Amino acid sequence: MDEGEETGLIEGADGRMRCRWVGTDPLYQHYHDTEWGRPVADDRRLFEKLCLEGFQAGLSWITILKKREAFRELFHGFEIERVAAMGREDVERLVADARIIRHRGKIEAAIGNGAAALRLIEREGSLAAFLWGFEPPAEERPSVMTLRWLGENPVTPASTRLSRALRREGFRFVGPTTCYAFMQSMGFVNDHVPGCHARGECESDRARFGRPDASA
């Protein structure tokens, strides 16, 4: 085992230490540095990530990341009402567009998830209020040792609870592994490996973050 495998870190060309999973791809590094693990309370961004994590199922995130701008174009910037209003003709158009993942089931699920999100917003006040209700307590978060093999995509009690809740609400492609990846990326947990330059930044962001709730 080399030092990077043991620590879970990799040194970039810029001299900064990052989580080993990010590798050397500049696009992936930028995502890691500026987005992954930063807490988000914006409904549109949360909805987009839920949908894109669903498209990722069975694939790598870098594959989705490279297609993200095309996804945003074709799914109306992931504005929830516009996605929910998409119909059969839109599905056929997207299935034929090679710029995204042309998986009919996932495309239909994203549209259906838009309708489910609207129902939640009407009931809860915001999608963020519902989702952040599943923020895991400290004792359920991965240990430092776990963070070193995070590429194995752990399932946690909190991600299982969120997955079950979303499925009850009518969401699809939201299994426990997908939900934990969502939690990681949207800052519900800070899974940057100790020693990663972004870990402390995410901790500071979380300290300033106002956790959404249904009364907001």
Give the total of domains.
Answer: 1
CATH domain class: Mainly Alpha
The radius of gyration computed from the alpha-carbon positions, rounded to a whole number of angstroms, is: 17 Å
**CATH homologous superfamily, by name?**
Hypothetical protein, domain 2
Strand count, sense and barrel status of the largest sheet are: 2 strands, antiparallel
**Count of β-strands:** 2
The whole-number mean of residue pLDDT values reads 92
CATH topology: Endonuclease III, domain 1
Word description of this protein:
- The N and C termini lie far apart (49 Å).
- Helices cover 56% and strands 3% of the residues.
- It contains 12 helices and 2 strands, in the order αββααααααααααα.
- The chain has a single domain (8-208), classed as Orthogonal Bundle (Endonuclease III, domain 1), CATH 1.10.340.
- It is globular and about 50 Å long.
- Strand 1 and strand 2 (17-19) form a beta hairpin.
- The protein has helices spanning 3-7, 26-34, 43-56, 61-74, 80-84, 88-95, 104-124, 127-132, 144-148, 157-168, 176-185, 197-208; strands spanning 9-11, 17-19.
- Helix 3 (43-56) crosses helix 4 and helix 3 crosses helix 11 (176-185).
- By secondary structure, the chain is mostly helical.
- The protein has a two-stranded antiparallel sheet.
